[in-house]
Design goal:
It is a single chain. This protein is mainly alpha-helical. It has one domain. It is built from three helices and no strands.
Length: 106
């Protein structure tokens, strides 16, 4: 019977039981204070982690949009240069803009 009692009380053995004895407070007071302290440490760390992830995603999205706009602007300038001068960005002549009218394909 003694070994069954030992298995039954296994959860209360160890550092927590020693802490209860040292504090002299009821178990619920110790567990409540430990829980509060744990949450005070854990919740701000969780919030900071989520905030860092959110800031990283927003930063990535802003850089992606900026890169896309810069690429579109560069393509538009190349198109206009070819249209106005008849030369490409390397100075080759007789570069024509392809007419993409649907009647050409019929």
């Amino acid at each position: 019977m003694k070994w069954r009692m030992h298995i039954h009380n296994f959860g209360s053995q160890g550092p927590a039981r020693h802490l209860f004895k040292l504090s002299g407070a009821p178990a619920w007071v110790v567990w409540t204070s430990l829980t509060v302290v744990g949450l005070v440490i854990f919740l701000p760390l969780l919030a900071l982690t989520l905030l860092a992830i959110l800031v990283g995603l927003i930063f990535f999205a802003v850089l992606y949009v900026l890169s896309t706009l810069m690429n579109m602007g560069r393509n538009a300038l190349h198109f206009l240069r070819r249209l106005v001068t008849g030369r490409d960005d390397q100075g080759r002549r007789n570069v024509t803009v392809i007419n993409r009218d649907s009647s050409d394909f019929q």
